Amino acid sequence: MVQTINLVLPKQSSVYSDLYNVYYDLFLGLNKLNIKARILLTKVDERNTYPQYDNNVKIEEISLEALDELLKDGNVYVLPDDFSLLKKIKYENLTIKNYLIWAHYFYGHRFLFKKYRDLPYRNYGVDRKYTLIEYLPIKFAYWSSKFYVSALKGKPIVAQSLWTLLLLERVYNLPVLGLLRIPVEASLYPLENDKESSALIYLGSKEDTDLEALYHTLKVLKEVDKDIKFDSFGNEHLARIVSQHYKVNYLGKLNRRELNEEYGKHLLTISPIYNGNFEMVPIQSLLCGTPVITFIQPFMEVTGESQLIANIEYVQEIRNKIKLWKNDIKDLRITTRKKILEEMDNEVVAKKLVYDYLMSMF
Fold first, then answer.
1. Helices 211-224 and 315-325, axial angle in degrees (round to 10)
2. pLDDT (tens digit, 9 = 90+) per residue, 228-254?
């Protein structure tokens, strides 16, 4: 019988970490089911930020030693596949009982996918050359992925996307119990229909952000609407690079409430991120009723083909859909939001966690 669900959350390098939002929303979903849950925040490496949660969400900050003792108490634990957390568990012989690992990451993009390996070079206009300096980071990524596999081997795993599930099973030969989508608290994403003639640009890391695709998109947008304005958030360094080519107002790093306000105002969001993970920026934008230009990635497992999503690699599709988005698309906004919440509403995800996995395991 599941009594308390303990959500083990390693400290992140940024207060804006998606993982902080994920665990907050899952905690709220479990509360809706009247299931006792708590968030256990632990420091596993140099990362040392504290999530910006509402006061009604209690966080218990514990050491790894205390976590080791707690993992013996018979309660149920949900752990992310955070690399440093897995490393600590493996090398410090932490005793784990009644736990489930929730796979959010996939350590292997850098050496498995050529486009992913090439992005940093393309972004800085550097010719790619296979030298020892180039070889070592790829080799290190390979070694990291081998450790990742060894740390997960024999553990009960659920994956946040079908893409992650298939990679774990077919690339790394790790059995996965099934899917557990990233939860969202719907009330945090107000649906807005009145939009300004402006585009919101998400800039991630230099390894993930395809600036060439972004520049092509901004060029098309200016051709369709010469008066359109551009705002960006995220990586400040990349924002400075982009501003050398286009006039872009950098909004800084935004917390979730601030970001959702920006989604609500803008005509569209551009997310030129290519990394194979389940990107949340497109999902968050669509929940707020704002169409997205991005790569075709795992988030479309939830949305399916949609008139509110344009493939950043196809110029004509971008042109056609921008014209559509300038019309009244209220019904499209509502149906897309509904489709997302059918799978990702935090109460739906909490039910799946408890009744499909934890109750059958413990």
1. 50
2. 999 999 999 999 999 999 999 999 999
